[in-house]
Amino acid sequence: MDYPDLTFPSADRLQEIESADFHQLKLRYLELTSLFEMNRLLNSTLELRTILNNVLLIPMGRLMISRGIVLLREGDEETVTVRNAKGIPGLKAGTKLGWKSWPLRYFRLSEENLPLNEEEIRFFQKIGAEIVLPLTNGPRVLGFLAFGARSPQRTFGEEDIRFLASVADLASIAVYKSLLFEELQASNKQLDRKVQQLNTIFEISRELNTHLDEDQVAQILAFSLMGELVVNRCIVLLKKDGGWEPVISKGLVGDVAHKLDDVCRQALPAAFLQKPSWIDLRHVDLPELSPFKSCFIEEGIYYLIPLYGKEGLVGIVGISNRVDGGELDREALEFAHLLANEAVIGIENAFLVQQMLEKQRMEDELRIARDIQAQLLPQNLPEVPGLEMVGANIPSKEV
To answer: Most buried of 32, 80, 216, 266 (most Cβ within 10 A)?
Structure first.
């Protein structure tokens, strides 16, 4: 019968084993301590920049890594943005990169059959990355955490990779919460802007409806748009006597009224047959626009907002870019469209009032004419002996 070898290790061997086990326990303790401290730091704030700084600096300091980078996905688009980078000269935060590969596992750049396309591999090679770890939320990849080489004479061991994988897991949770917080903040800001815009439209609408003159309404509209959108050029054209009369022009140096010749007067309304909310003259190519497109662009007018009334197109508002040169976004143009619609009510009311006043004036003149006409007739018939005379004057209308 064979008996197992019951030879016990020597005292020196036991001491060596105990020393190795103690060293491993010590490393594991330091790793857990670092992870605990990182978890505490990551959960102490929702500010993404602070979170990403800790995500890079803590493992880079502990493992003596030369460089690190965080790439985050932009929504569901096939792009990533450099949100933070350390030790990589020439790479700026905010740089956007086209991206199509979204692996759910970590990998080394030295592996074969990398889960990336050639362009993505070249990017990581260019910045000197050696290991890439995905930041995930369930099956969705939020972005990537990549690190370069360790200090000279050191390589990534299994414990190091396990530590970095744990860092990526903690970072994924913190980044996801921070992105949700940023999205909530953006929604709140957008809601605040909408409420402010509605209050502004309400106040301006009340001001517009207190004036009964078309030119005054157009002036209030122009100043309101220039103030709210921070633009320095505005023109309001109203349809009068079959043409388009610029009732107010602010910031324009040329004679727009002179440039709007007969061709422009005919083509201008044709561009709005489909009733668009607005037209960006630089980004639209319609044959109807060509006669007057350059006319406005030369004056710095890039956006046209139609004024639709009960009888169709009654006016057009032209505005420039912002004072700082920035283009107007969709939200700003929607606000301009809403404000223009409120002005249409004031313009039509002013037109109706003017019509009523004109009618009243004509009635007054006809009444005066009737009185004059009545005074021209003899008040008393002549007396002729032997004749009896009767006369009557009945006007068909006023006169």
So the answer is: 80
Average pLDDT over residues 353-375: 81
Amino acid at 106: Y
Query: What's the CA gap between 274 and 311, in Å, rounded?
Result: 15
Q: How far apart are the first and last CA of the chain?
A: 145
Q: What is the pLDDT of residues 54-89, one digit of tens each?
A: 889 888 888 889 899 999 998 778 899 999 999 998
Q: Which residue has the tokens 């007018």?
A: 301
How many C-alpha atoms does 312 have within 13 Å on its Cβ side?
6
Q: What does the block give as tokens for 325?
A: 């040169």
- Measured distance CA(168)–CA(279) in Å, rounded: 47
Bridge partners, 146 (sequence order): 69, 132
The structure's pTM equals 0.57
Q: Cα–Cα–Cα angle for 243, 248, 254, nearest 5°?
A: 85
Alpha carbons 141 and 102: distance in angstroms, whole number: 6
200-248 per-position pLDDT tens digit = 777 777 776 666 677 778 888 888 888 888 898 888 888 777 677 778 8
Nearest to 131 by CA among 203, 65, 202: 65
Give the residue carrying structure tokens 């530590």: 163
